[in-house]
Design brief:
heterodimer, A: alpha+beta, 2 domains, 4-stranded antiparallel beta sheet, 44% helix, B: mainly alpha, Formate dehydrogenase/DMSO reductase fold, 16 helices
Chain lengths: 176, 457
């Protein structure tokens, strides 16, 4: 069977039932493709066995880039490229350079992290998402199970397990 | 299943379900604008048009159209700039600092407050922009870009340049933070449009939502991004008004040369910002019928922040007076004597009444839970905070070291027109936002509906 085409979709009404359901479904060895929720459900990523996101590392690296860029820019411009005496002070000294350094650190960290988020999540304005159930942004939690990833189990068996795990509704969804 | 706390007041009343949240908030985006909205929007456009005329005249003839003179070289422009920047601070405080403190009551109000921040910063930035005389060359002059003078770089020792970086970073990061919050909510409107069969709206809101799907992995990353943005915005918002206060504090003008300025400005900014949030939200909740989401409890909590920050501002005023006497510097002493007793005493005492005395009324529970009283006091606080900046700026310089140059400042039509222009920008943008964007963060409110909403009868 082709991957990413044929799915069983379980609809959950309540986030606590969903969390329990995810644990039960995974306990019997079914691999969950993804769970779509209208709001962040705490503990769902752990229940699904997802690793922690590395976005904080990206934010830190972008922030450091900002710090280094800002300090280099200021020391080079005022200390080396065109030194000027302003108020009888040193050509270049650290304290007055701190505000701009701080601002550029924050700016690059924020922009870089958000850009990384959009890229790794494959989000772009012209992309129409593949929707397993239209209600997943309204009030339902939607669990998608890819049949190709669970070749050992029959479709009927997966549907039965989802229903037993608390899904209020279980549907099939096929993409061309 | 609903869990009702015995000790906490519900944050969302009316026994809302998750589905109700999508419906109540998306409804006003989907429907035709009401007559009330058109009227309010029309008034904002009129302000914008009149202010735009004054600004156009000023760009054509130069800023000599302002009422400035040789002694008073800074007056309404910088007063309005600091006032607007200050107003913006409440939005970031609500969305970032209250997020770090896990204050869930922020969830109903953060969207509108952040929108207010962004529009207020745009208004603020217009003043230094116009002050440069040639607005279109502003970027070229203010940023460290290679130029034909050498390159002669910008002066990184100047607080005015720090302002450029602080305000532009603040604007960008606030915009990104606000937009990140909007992404899942745009997807709600998109999916409702698909169900309703409105293809064009679905397309537009899908593009706005970046094709949001709401998978668990995406939500995990999304929450991480929101937390880090909050962590970045918290020192950022404190730095912005600190740097704005450096414009004055690093000078040697008596009345400005004060180390208390950074914390005092930040407290004042949050004080005036919350007042503006209240002014706007009291109207918004009424017009869009959001009384069950923005409850009296929310209003009360915001009023409590107004008492706290108002009291900090009051203590700062008194500390300034004490230090001007205690320092025994005659110039410093005169600057404050002149504020209290001089020709601008009316402005000083208006400031004292509006900012120090009036917010203390919120100690009375009946007043801080009354909508009318809150609305009136929020406007009084905003007037008071405008006078604070006017007092600090104009009274410190209108009587300088040489008595022969002592003078007064009188605003011209163009000073006033430019201020009106920024009100035009602010309200036009806010009404457009309130019509086309979800005014309450649906995803966040949905996540607390179960645990904090009022028990259904």
């Amino acid at each position: 069977m082709e991957a990413d085409k044929h799915f069983v979709v379980g609809i959950f009404d309540d986030e606590d039932v969903l969390l329990e359901g995810v644990k039960k479904v995974r306990a019997v060895g079914i691999r969950i493709h993804e769970v779509y929720s209208p709001f962040p459900v705490h503990g769902l990523d752990e229940a699904l066995g997802y690793a922690r996101t590395r976005l904080p590392i990206a934010a830190f690296l972008f922030g450091m880039t900002g710090t280094i860029l800002a300090l280099t820019m200021q020391f080079w411009m005022l200390g080396y490229d065109w030194p000027m005496i302003i108020g009888g002070k040193n050509f270049a000294s650290l304290p007055p350079f701190i505000p701009v350094t701080f601002e550029l650190t924050v700016l690059l960290s924020a922009l870089g992290m958000v850009a990384t988020f959009l890229i790794v999540s494959d989000m772009k304005p012209y992309k129409w998402p593949r929707q397993f159930d239209i209600r997943s942004t309204d009030d339902k939690h939607v669990m998608a199970v890819d049949l190709a990833e669970n070749a050992g189990k029959s479709k009927e068996e997966i549907m039965r397990i989802l229903r037993e795990s608390g899904a209020s509704e279980v549907n099939e969804k096929n993409f061309e | 299943m609903q869990v009702v706390s015995a000790i906490r007041e519900p944050l969302i009343t009316g026994g809302k379900t998750v589905k109700d949240v999508s419906h109540d908030i998306s409804r006003q985006v989907e429907g035709k604008p009401t007559r009330l909205w058109w009227m309010a929007f029309g008034v904002s456009l009129a302000l914008l048009a009149w202010g735009g005329y004054c600004c156009a005249m000023m760009l054509w003839h130069g800023i000599g159209m302002w009422g400035l003179n040789k002694t008073v070289g800074w007056a309404w422009d910088i007063t309005n700039f600091v006032w607007w920047v200050g107003i913006g601070h409440a939005g970031t405080l609500i969305s970032a600092i209250l997020l770090l403190f896990r204050q869930r009551w922020r969830m109903s109000i953060n969207r509108a407050a952040e929108a207010m921040t962004i529009f207020a910063v745009i208004c603020a930035a217009s003043f230094p922009g116009f002050h440069m005389g040639r607005l279109w060359l502003g970027f070229y002059w203010a940023l460290p870009l290679p130029n034909t003078f050498g390159s002669l770089w910008v002066n990184f020792n100047s607080p005015l340049l720090w302002d450029v970086f602080a305000i532009s970073t603040y604007f960008t990061v606030s915009l990104v933070f606000w937009y990140m919050g909007l992404i899942p909510d745009f997807a709600v409107i998109r999916d409702r449009a698909v169900v309703q069969g409105n293809k064009l709206r679905a397309k537009i809101y899908n593009a706005l939502s970046f094709g949001w799907q709401g998978g668990a992995k995406t939500w995990q990353r999304y929450e991480s991004v929101a937390l880090i943005l909050a962590g970045l915005s918290t020192p950022l918002v404190l730095s912005v008004h600190t740097i704005v206060s450096f414009d004055f504090a690093t000078s040697v003008i008596p009345g400005w040369h004060t180390t208390i300025f950074p914390p005092y400005f930040v407290a004042g900014a949050i004080f005036s910002g919350f007042a503006m949030v209240l002014t706007l939200l009291l109207v918004t909740r009424k017009v869009f019928k959001l009384e069950e989401y923005i409850t009296i409890y929310h209003i009360e909590l915001m009023n409590i922040i107004i008492i706290i920050t108002g009291s900090i501002v009051g203590i700062a005023y008194i500390t300034e007076l004490f230090i001007s006497w205690y320092s025994q510097v005659p110039y410093e002493g005169y600057a404050f004597y002149n504020r209290i007793q001089g020709p601008y005493a009316w402005a000083y005492w208006s400031m004292m009444t509006c900012n120090v005395i009036s917010p203390q009324l919120f100690w009375i529970k009946k007043i801080r839970t009354s909508i009318v009283a809150t609305f009136v006091l929020s406007i009084i606080v905003n007037i008071g905070m405008w006078f604070e900046r006017f007092v600090i700026i104009v009274t410190s310089i209108h009587r300088d070291y040489v008595p022969s140059s002592w003078t007064m400042f009188y605003p011209t039509m163009y000073d006033i027109g430019q201020y009106i222009f920024t009100f035009g920008i602010f309200f036009t943008a806010f009404f457009l936002f309130a019509k086309f964007f979800p005014v309450i963060n649906m995803a966040e409110v949905k996540s607390i509906v179960k645990s904090t909403s009022e028990k259904t009868a």
